[in-house]
Every structure is written in structure tokens, then in C-alpha cells.
Amino acid sequence: MSANRETKNKRFYLIGIGISLLIAGVISFYASSAPDGLEKVAIDIGFIDSAKDSAVSQSALADYAVAGVGHERLSVGIAGIIGVVVTGIIMMVIVRLIGKKKN
Amino acid sequence: MHIPDGFINIPTASATAALAVGGLGYSVRQAKEKLDEKAAPLVGLVAVFVFAGQMVNFPVAAGTSGHLLGGALAAVLVGPHAASLALTVVLAVQALLFADGGLTALGLNVFNMSIVGVWGGYGTFLLVRKIFRSTESSVLLGSAIGAFVSVPLAATFFSIQYAIGGQGTFAPSTVFAAMFGTHILIGLGEAAITFLTVAAILKTRPDLVYGMVQVKARANEKATRAEGREA
């Protein structure tokens, strides 16, 4: 792989990560808070009450809010950024573990 | 689309989880064969983008929202094997860290989105790409249609799971009709986001798009063969 290609790749990844951080950290605040398709169907038909809280529903990041951060915009933004970082690290580790090694 | 705990009974959720594990096993075997460890940043980026995209619900109809599933998008960008692993990482992070989607329902969600959404979306993509003779625009069109199809398809599998193990006495046909209709609308949003994202990457780095690399390889092969005949 040439040095030029390496630079191009690096730039692509950085821009991609930047856009993802922007979406998860900033734009997510403006997401619609209306129930999603499944929730809406469950409400309309009447089985929404069968939903149970997840075992981690009281965790520090439950519902994309950071416990103790009252500022809503900041809270969802930090949660989003944490999600991006954790997701990215886990995924990269998995690909490194199962991907083919050259040489 | 993230099923919470309680909607579907434990036996049905467990059986579906077993199917999901089987599907993921296949993806891992495929990935071991086809995926280079150097693809780690690209697959990581795709997972991250899907996670971010899933945070942004868009309104689709009165009092209803939807968000990107990203299965078809990820499959076109990094291949269905890596995509199903990426979607699974996203769903696991959401369920464990953010209480988004139930824990006992994780297998259901992985099955519907990482297996059905990814492979169903990718299969549709391949079909459309083939019909339109594997050109660059066929890749774009296939991505959009694959994305569109993947959403009501995943919703259909929820309806099947509800029919088998739903904690309620509502008619399966009622649930199916409502799920399918709503997710057709969400599928349109899915198609739009997927189209725009694939278009942007095709414009800047077509060499990084899995669904395009094969098109390029085939074109090169054809050209080489034609040259061979001439010589």
C-alpha cells in the first residue's frame, strides 16, 4: 500500500468518525421523541403494557442519558459519544481477532 | 424496532436466539475467509455510523418515528458477513449500555436486524444489481431498494415471533398488518439515508464499497478476456 493511499484512507476514516460523532453527539438531541414503529403498533393494538424494564434500565447510561448530568443536550450528547467509542473499539478488536492476517 | 423484554415469551426468545447464534456463526466463518484484519478501521467505522444513525429518530407519520436500521447499508459497504457482526455489536452495546432493546430480547433483535435485515437487504441488493447489469447506478439503486425491503422484512419477522410467543391475545394478522404498514414508511427513510450515504462514498472512495468492488473486478475480468481474444 502506497503512502498516498494510506493518507487517503486515514482522511476517510477521520471524516467518517467525525460525522458519526457529530450525529451521535449533537444531532441526536434533535431526534423525534415520538414512539418508534414497534412501540406505536404496541400502543395502538394494546400490548405495550407487556413490556418489562430491562435489567439494566437503571444503569448510568440507560436511555442515552448520563446519570447525574441534568443538562439534556449534554447528557444525550455524551451518551452518544460514549456509544460511538465503545462500538468502534469492540468492532475493531473483533475484526483484528477473526480477520485474515497477512504474512 | 428494538424489542423490549416482555413482548415475546422466553421460550420463543431463546429459540430465536439460538437461530441468531447459528447465523452469526456462519457470518464469522465467512468473515474469517474473506475479511482482512486491515479492514478493522472500515468495519469499525461502519458499526459506529450505524450506531449514530440509529440514535436519530425521524418522524414518519402522526405520532410515529423510525430510525435507520443500517443492515443493508452496512452489507453493501463491508459485505453481509462483516455487516451482520457490526449490527450485532451495535445491538449489544445498545442493550447492555443504554437499555435500548431488552436483554432477553437481544436474540430476537439480533435475528431480526443483524440476520434478516442484513442478509435480506443484501440479497435484494444483489438481485437489483444483477437485473441492472452491475453498473455503478445499479449499486446505488440496489442499496436503496435493499434498504427499503429490509425494514418491513424485519418487521414481518417480529410479527411471526409475536404470533408464536406474544404475551397477549391480539390477532397475529392485526399485528402483522400494523407492523408491515408502519415499517413500509420507515423503509422509505431507510432507503433515502442508505442511498445518500452510499452515493457519497461511491463518489469519494468507490474502492472501499464492497458491493462496488465486485462490479469493478468483473468489469476488469471482462476487459482482460476481451483483450485476450483480440491478441
Walkthrough of the structure:
The complex is a heterodimer of chains A (103) and B (231). Chain A has helices at 3-25, 37-45, 72-98. By secondary structure, chain A is an all-alpha fold. Chain A has one domain. In chain A, helix 1 (3-25) runs antiparallel to helix 3. With 231 residues, chain B is mainly alpha-helical. Chain B contains eight helices and two strands, in the order H-H-E-E-H-H-H-H-H-H. In chain B, a hairpin with a 2-residue loop joins strand 1 and strand 2. The longest helix of chain B is centred in the C-terminal third of the chain and has 33 residues, at 172-204. Chain B is globular. The interface between A and B is large, with 62 and 74 residues.
Low-confidence stretches of chain B: none
What is the number of helical segments of chain A per DSSP (H or I, 4+ residues)? 3
Strand content of chain B: under 5%
Run of helices and strands of chain A: HHH
The greatest interface here is:
A-B, 62 and 74 residues
Shape of chain A: elongated
Order of helices and strands of chain B: HHEEHHHHHH
Strand order within the widest sheet of chain B? Answer: 1-2
| Secondary-structure-derived class of chain A | mainly alpha
The structural class of chain B is mainly alpha
Q: From the 3D coordinates, which CATH architecture of chain B would you assign?
A: Orthogonal Bundle
Radius of gyration of chain B: 18 Å
Helical residue percent band of chain B = over 70%
Distance between the termini of chain B: 57 Å
Beta-sheet strand percentage of chain A? Answer: under 5%
Outline type of chain B: globular
| Overall average residue pLDDT of chain A | 94
Gyration radius of chain A, rounded: 19 Å
* pLDDT < 50 runs, ≥5 residues of chain A: none
Sheet with the most strands, sense and barrel status of chain A: none
The CATH class designation of chain B is Mainly Alpha
